[in-house]
Amino acid sequence: MRNDKSVILAQKGAEQERKLGLRWLVALSAIPLFGIVAAFGIAPQTDTAPLNVQTVVENLSLPATAQPEGANAEYWRTARIQRGDTVASLLARLHVNDREALNFVNSNKDAKTLYQLMPGKTISAETGANGELLSLRYLHPDGTLLKVEKAGDGFTAAEQQAPLEAQTTIKSGEIRSSLFAATDAVDLPDAVASQLVDIFSTDIDFHHDLRKGDRFTVIYQSLYNGGTLLKAGRVLAAEFVNQGKVYRAVYFEDGQGRGGYYTPEGKNLHKAFLRSPLPFTRITSGFSMARYHPILHKWRAHTGTDFTAPIGTPVRATADGAVAFIGKENGYGNFIVLKHQGNLSTAYGHLSRFAKGLHRGSKVTQGEVIAYVGMTGLATGPHLHYEFRVAGIARNPMTVALPTAFPIAPRYRQAFTETARPLVAQLGMLQGINMASLD
Predict the structure, then answer these.
(1) Is the pLDDT of residue 32 over 60?
(2) Between 3.10.450.350, 2.40.37.10, 1.10.1410.10, 3.30.930.10, what CATH number should domain 165-270+428-438 receive?
(3) What is the pLDDT of residues 235-293, one digit of tens each?
(4) Residue ranges of the domains in the chain?
(5) What are the residues facing 128 on neighbouring strands?
(6) CATH number of 282-395
(7) Residue of 280, 267, 265 whose CA lies nearest to 201
């Protein structure tokens, strides 16, 4: 047994020596190979002697830069408005050290719009070396630019419309609970959502017809100034899928500057009358020939439709026309009657006030604000009473057949086709795609 172990140990030792010898053999055989590779790294006849390195220090003269001279130095600074800021704190942050400028902003009626500060917006000021105000710029959210300028020993203030750059934005959404919940979910501006309702209001009853799963896509203008988004502009094209039926609209302006929305085939989407004088609200009482009056406590005809809305909500004319009556009228309270084409008229009651400048005979256009919601007359709460009359007889404004508007004139047909084709193509590409937005 001992001899067997000795033989095994001897064999293991020999094996180890053999492996070690092979390792040395591989290492030695590799030396010429690596030496050959290294030889190719040096060019023939290269001088490999140590290099003589010498440090040289040289003075270089820099070109002179123009420096502002003391009192003539001018500086532009910009500050972002923060919550709780005042005009005084903003001027201090802009390094404005000018009591006369602050007094001017506090007292001048044109400069007082500066106090309509909105957090997140920016204000810029140009000052002299000692902090005296030379110029101030503030861009209001509506695109109005306020300019305060140094003029002699005092200041001037003026407002002007800032130059706006229009960019196209596309947004799409799906209705889960309500239209405005869907538009909020995709960050669609309220102004665009209201346009969307106006565009399709003659085909879709937004009070009753909407269903879960309805979809919309809208292409509209976003208005920028200096890279800053100021507001939403006009809707250029839109698609609304209501209960599986597809409605499309394209905006077109003819050679005479008259604009409107048309189907891709050129049919005018707008009737001669809007279905509702309020952009979007809830009907609290419909047209009825027998309704129990909540104040008079008796049965009587309700010859119009009541729309609930907060006091002060703008009321629009539903069609072009002229003011036939404006003033107080018994249970209607503040009341307006508009005379339209043919034997048609509309009436608006319980108003809080009328639009400025309106009087009997005044011309109004469709969509123009003529008054504001109130609760004057026999009203239990703030709402608008709206009537549609044919030859003086009230008809249900929600169901009456509205007169149609004219289609695209033949002479503008080609221009309309060229405008509509790319917009309709974009709507078609996005159909069925669940996209939030594309700028």
Answers:
(1) no
(2) 3.10.450.350
(3) 999 999 999 999 999 999 888 777 889 999 998 887 778 878 887 555 555 444 444 44
(4) 72-161, 165-270+428-438, 282-395
(5) 74
(6) 2.70.70.10
(7) 280
